[in-house]
Amino acid sequence: MNELLSVLGQAVAFGTPILLAALGEVVAERAGVVNLGVEGMMALGALAAFATAQTTGNLLLGLLMGVLVGALAAAIHALVAVTLRANQFVSGLALTALGLGVSGLLGQHFVGSPLLEPLPGAEFRIGAVLLAIGVWGVLYLTQTGLILRSVGENPGAVDVMGISVVRVRWLAVLFGGAMAGLAGSYLSLSYRPAWVDGTTAGLGWIAVALTIFVGWHPVRAILGAFFFGLLYHLAFRLQGRVPSEFLLMLPYLLVVVVLSLAALRRQQGAAPEALGLPYKRGER
Amino acid sequence: MNKPPPSLRRWVFEPDPNPPASRLWLVSLLAILAAFLASGLIFWAYGVSPLTAYITVIQGTLFDSTGLAEVLRRFIPLVLIGSGLTLAFRAQFFNIGAEGQLLMGAVAAAGIALFVPLPAALVLPTMFVVGFLAGGAYALVAAVLKARLGVNEILTTLMFNYVASYLVIYLINGPWQGKTVRGFAYTDPFPPAAVLPTLPGTLVHWPTLILGLIMTVFLQLLLSRSVLGYELRVAGANPTAARYAGISATKVVWLVALCSGGAAGLAGVGEAAGIHQKLLDPSQISLGYGFTAVIVAYLARGNPILTIPTALLMAILFAGGDVMKVSLQMPFRVIDALSGLLLLFLIGSERLVEYRLRRKENPQ
User: Hey, how many other C-beta atoms are within 10 angstroms of the C-beta on B45?
Assistant: First the structure.
């Protein structure tokens, strides 16, 4: 029994950053913007949070900086993919390269000096679940949520009503970045309170896949994220019995399997109609 | 009518329905310059003067004979992968997995070199053929998932990069670990018949270089002078029209996956047989060629032959990363940051091509 509880606890601990980042991606994609920069934004957020906490000794200030830097990185994507209407996939990919490159470079100065008093993880885990319910509430129960979802389904109709599609998409992308930054901060301030290059370890990509897997639904994302967390943890416990390389491969293979399963179930019918399409007034 | 006084004339920024081709190249050039200026900020944040960094890179690559050889060495995988990717992007198949396909090519090369007894003259040709097939087959998995189930190929090819990387790590630590390397994580060295010749004193494996140049010409001809190429262009430019014309989207996706993955596989054979002469850690086999080749292909605007100049540009950047690592003690990660910036500026500036700056009379 205790064994089971500890396994579940570990699953939740590992699932939390995936959940946080996936919630941000759900909101951005619901507004019609795919952001493949999650991994990069997460890494930048993790470094900003850790660097601030390490130099000022103030963990909450670090958390704030992590969130801010995540949103700032997302602003690059919003500018390029929303305002300048470039290919969203390429832009996000470039953002991931930029984020991993810059965090790896500037993080050099912080390697090998862990935080002595990390943030407690329990608040993060509870907070992530509450946030998921909050995002669900906003998306489905408020007018803001209705507008946001409409921008992802039929931006032309929203534009006709006199609401700026570009502004809604900007805000959604910024929220996505802030959440990725929060996920990164959890990693570097609480889960593994130190800076190592590659601390995000593909979690950002799993968040992107999870968004599709759960059909862009924030509450289902809770279960999905903890399920992924459980798989990670089980893989970890198999160490020694199976070559570790195969375990490390597992999350990436899982993403492919999950995407294929989602496609088999015709889940993609649930995708926002205008997902991935830049919006320009007067064009279909 | 008199000309209006100068105060009534002003500059306007207006949409241009028919932008000239020259503006595309001008805007791209400006975007590249802007990206390098922006990367100065990153150098500065790291604590290296941007000016010092630029001067070091230019001196260490273009004005130095070993530097030039390094540029040429980086050019080989970039032109091979880049020319294959132009085809893929033309057909709207966003293959981001060249890194993994390159590794599969290297694995295939090592498998042939180390474990398959062949007459000496046949070893290298077999390595190239099998490497092409391995890279192509790896890309085909993503192509099948896309064509049959509609799974996004960007995500799958990207995930397969990580999988290939761990596969190599498994091989060099496990079944393929060399008997003669005393516990180090790489295979035995390739036999002499499986090693590519290089230009004296450099790491430029010229057979692969020639192969890369032939590849650009071949793919250009395939694209512009063959039925397959025509089908590919139509399917990429207008999928609906292609369907009505009876062009099989599945066939096109399979073709471009095989070509782009195969080209990356060839690059992997070149790196393994020309540079390292063994299979070793994936981060040493490829230094991110797969991702940088995306920029090479993007810059070439879908023309395989134009990857020759664009691959050269990115090869200078790569060799520059080496110079920065040695002279300025910057981690090689800096290349990721520069590549990301370049790509962001390039796609962001695309929109500007559709506008023109004109002096216009004030409507009063």
Answer: 11
User: Cβ of A238 under 8 Å from any chain B Cβ?
Assistant: no
What residues contact residue B200 under an 8 Å CB cut-off, 6+ apart?
A: none
Residue B335 near chain A (CB below 8 Å): yes
**Dist. CA B120–CA B118, nearest whole Å:** 6
For residue A102, give both structure tokens. Answer: 């810059």
Per DSSP, which regions of B9-121 are E strands?
9-15
Q: Are the Cβ atoms of B159 and A252 closer than 8 angstroms?
A: yes
Whether residue A95 lies within 8 A of chain B, CB to CB, comes out as yes
Amino acid identity of residue B336, one-letter, is: D
Distance from CA of B342 to the nearest CA of A (A): 8
Interval B86-134: pLDDT, tens:
999 999 899 999 999 999 999 999 999 999 999 999 999 999 999 999 9
Rounded (5°) CA angle B245-B250-B252: 75
Whether A264 contacts chain B with CB within 8 A: yes
Chain-chain contact of A205 with B159 (C-beta, under 8 angstroms): yes
Residue A256 sits at the chain B interface (C-beta within 8 Å): yes
CB A62 within 8 A of CB A171: no
Cα distance between residue A182 and residue B344, in whole Å? 24
Sketch out chain A's domains with CATH numbers: 13-111+118-270 (1.10.3470)
pLDDT given at position A59: 92
Residue B93 dihedral angles phi and psi, to the nearest 5°: -110, 105
Q: What is the C-alpha to C-alpha distance for residues B286 and B335, in angstroms, rounded to an integer?
A: 13
Give CA–CA dist B33/A94, Å, rounded.
17
pTM, to two decimals: 0.88
Asked if B350 lies within 8 A of A256 by C-beta distance, the reply is no
Q: Do A104 and B42 touch (CB under 8 A)?
A: no
Number of domains in chain B: 1
Residue A152 has which token pair?
Answer: 């992802």
Residue A210 in tokens: 């999870």
- List the domain range (segments joined by +) for residue B131: 79-301
Phi/psi of residue B36, nearest 5 degrees: -70, -35
Asked whether residue B323 is domain-assigned, the answer is no
Whether residue B107 lies inside any domain: the answer is: yes
The Cα angle at residue B321 between residues B319 and B326, in degrees rounded to 5: 100
Question: Does residue B145 sit at the A interface (CB-CB below 8 Å)?
Answer: yes
For chain A, what is the mean pLDDT?
90
The angle subtended at Cα B235 by Cα B232 and Cα B240, nearest 5°, is 165
Q: Is residue B4 situated within a structural domain?
A: no
From chain A, the residues in CB contact with B351 under 8 A are 84-86
Alpha-carbon distance of B224 to A209, in angstroms, equals: 37
Residue B306 located in a structural domain: no
Q: Which residues of chain B have pLDDT under 50?
A: none
Which of A252, A260, A266, A280 is the mutation pick for testing B, counting most B CBs within 10 A?
Answer: A252
Q: b/e map of B165-191 (b: 16 or more CB within 10 Å)?
A: bbbbbbbbbeebbbeeeeeebbbbbbe
* Cα angle B136, B249, B346; round to 5: 70
Lowest model confidence (mean pLDDT) among A71-75, A86-90, B331-335: B331-335
